[in-house]
Amino acid sequence: MRTRLLKTALVVGIALNSYGVLAESSVSSSSDIKVGNNAGLSLKSGDHYFKIGGRLMFDYAMWEDAVYSGVDGESGSGSEIRRARIYLKGKYKDWQYRFQTDFVGGDAKNKSTYIKYTGLDAFDIYVGKHSEPFGLENITSSKYLSPIERTVTGNTLFAGDRELGVSIASSGSNYGYQVGVYDVDSIATDTNLAVTGRFTYAPINSDDQTLHLGIGASSRQLDETSLYGRKDRAGVHTTGVKAINTGESYGDSLFVYDLEAMYTKDQFNIVAEYLAADLSGVTKADDREWSSYYVQTGFFLTNDQRSYDVAGGYTNGVKPSSNSGAWEVFARFEDISYSDQNVGTDGEIITLGVNWFATKYTRISMNYVTADIDDVATGTNVDGQAINFRAQFHW
Predict the structure, then answer these.
(1) Does the N-terminal or the C-terminal CB of the chain have fewer CB atoms within 10 Å?
(2) Of 319, 330, 326, 318, whose CA–CA distance to 366 is shortest?
(3) Which of 386, 391, 330, 388 is nearest to 357 (CA)?
(4) How many domains does the chain fold into?
(5) Rounded to an integer, what is the distance from CA 324 to the centroid of its chain?
């Protein structure tokens, strides 16, 4: 069943992308149903609107040394279907919905399922499983990020990704905000909630120049009876080795905040984020403080750039200005300070990459990643390097 769904979605997506000679929408001669084929298949009839879309990402990586292989001096490689998602969304008057499922890993995994109400002037209301409003890189779709993988900062190891909750959101001509309450890791004898919010401001936003500033925060209740800790890979998802970790301790609550900035000018762009997390332990010995940041800069070799969404506070995809596609190069530096009280790791990761956006919906990427990680508890140092490839199609 899963294989049939993926094959059907791929065929539909390719067909929609191929028939560029067709108009973006057409009207059925026998009804008022409008059919659109712009980045997905959509249907509209009166107050009803429905759309289906998705994405496919295929990754292959080669690496050497302990950060990626787990053994110093050893090399290896791996491949995977990184994402295979289908989403459905629709609208009826002031009510909207979205349902997104990922079929990677053998079982269908729900990524988001929510209802949105837009009938109030002051703000919109989200109910269901949706992204917690935290972090520029986290909020930006994986389809549109320059690097193949998010940073350790952007992976929201401390703040949540998509959780079940209720939030409100609103925006103006140069700002946007969202704040919500989410159910995180509740158990039969304990209720754990998170309050997460994000505010963004774009004092400059024109066709050729954007300055984006943002701040996010999350206060999270933890299960005191369970050890709390986080682990992550060093920029290459294909390997199973998680060389970055915070160690584990018993926590009562966690407070996380994030500062973000982005500037684009024509083909040039620069992005930076800083994250800090403060774990309040069950005892003083369990208290922890962690932080990380990254700086990324990129340049389009062609006359192209990403568009900016003021309401969401993130960038969108690239629509190549010529039939030969758009070319982008970028460099990213990450600094990780996840050690405290003689446990955890510190490290640095550098990523260099090139992207070819063959069309608005297809992309080929190559990243070179090098990492240097110190384990404070053992006093050991590991490093490694990898080359990561991706082929992507979304519709």
Answers:
(1) N
(2) 330
(3) 391
(4) 1
(5) 28
Single out the residue of 29, 31, 35 nearest to residue 52, CA to CA: 35
CA distance 232 to 68: 11
Burial 306-337 (b: 16+ CB within 10 A, else e): bebbbebbbbeebebeeeebbbbebbbebbbe
Range of the domain at 285: 45-394
* 317 SS3 class: coil
| Residue-level pLDDT at 106 | 78
Establish if 37 belongs to a structural domain. no
What CATH number has the domain bearing residue 75?
A: 2.40.160.10
Residue bearing tokens 């929201």: 156
Residue 352 has pLDDT above 80, yes or no: yes
pLDDT tens digits along 229-283: 999 999 999 999 999 999 999 999 999 999 999 999 999 999 999 999 999 999 9
31 or 328, which is more confident? 328
Instruction: Decide if 155 is inside a domain.
Output: yes
Helix extents (H) in the chain: 2-18, 66-69, 136-139
Q: Are 222 and 193 in contact (CB under 8 A)?
A: no
- Strand, coil or helix: 120: coil
Comparing CA positions, the residue from 15, 155, 144, 9 lying closest to residue 85 is 9
Residue 83 lies in a domain: yes
* Residues 228, 329: Cα–Cα separation, whole Å: 38
Q: Are 212 and 202 in contact (CB under 8 A)?
A: yes
> What is the pairing mode between strands 48-64 and 362-375?
unpaired
Q: Is residue 25 part of a domain?
A: no
